[in-house]
User: What shape does this take?
Amino acid sequence: MIAPLDGARAPWLPGYRVKIMDGTCSEASDRRLKVLRAAPGGALPGKAVGVYEPVPGLVTDVLPCEDGHAQERSLLGMLRETIQPRELWLADRNCCTCAWLCDLAQRGACCLIRPQASLPFAPLNIRRSVGRIETGQGAEHRVPVCDAQGGTPLWRRLQGKLDQATRDGDRVVSLLPNLPLRQASAKRGARLYRTRWPLETALQHLAAYCHAAMNTLGSPKAALCGFCLAWVAYKMLAVVMAALRSVHGAETLDQELSLSSVANDMAQTSHGMMLAIPEDAWRVFSRMRPAELVATLRELAQKVRLTA
Assistant: This one.
């Protein structure tokens, strides 16, 4: 629906399909239910890794895990078969392993990942200054990364000495890109990585508006099922946002629209609409062809008052 609506955002990096990966835990469950008091997984019933595509604004993959204490990197093997050429994966250091980096490279995909401190490599040459980046001073050098076959392909490592420490107290941040130099200069790489916040925002929206984390769902399967249903609801919200972008423009929406107000308006209005309008009357939408539904969504989006 988003493609024919022409409601996607502008490409982040022309020629590449950008994917952002991050993990989240289900909320600690409420122990007041007797059946949960002896359940070992009841306190933290699950974890999931989500893959978000910022151009359409959709979460396109979810990896659920019943162990809420599992590391994100332990789930990456399930994503291996989804990797396609000309993709650019952005992730933090919790998703950085030698095997994952090599999987991406072997399948023709690219990445921009913050390496973990324990990643085994040693610099091959002296850092070369690349001048000022947006958040500090930048430098780069070549490093070998060991693959499963014992090879050591060379990667660039970008390092930024920050003007201000991160919230974790880091004053130096490293990134591993395997994009061609003309497409991932140090400045562009740093800027791309800093724009990975939409997935974190989507996770916050899930919790706040789609009730993804319900602390009464102490069974891991129940908690993860509820979490994935919330992702489905978020897809519906993404289609609504695409319809609004196609009419009002992406920049206008980013500056003037409050997603919390949209979610609250849906929640407050839908109950009354379901009471006032018979169920049979809604079936007209399920019978529409995609082109008809796109035209209807555009027509409705034109009537939305953003100021309200």
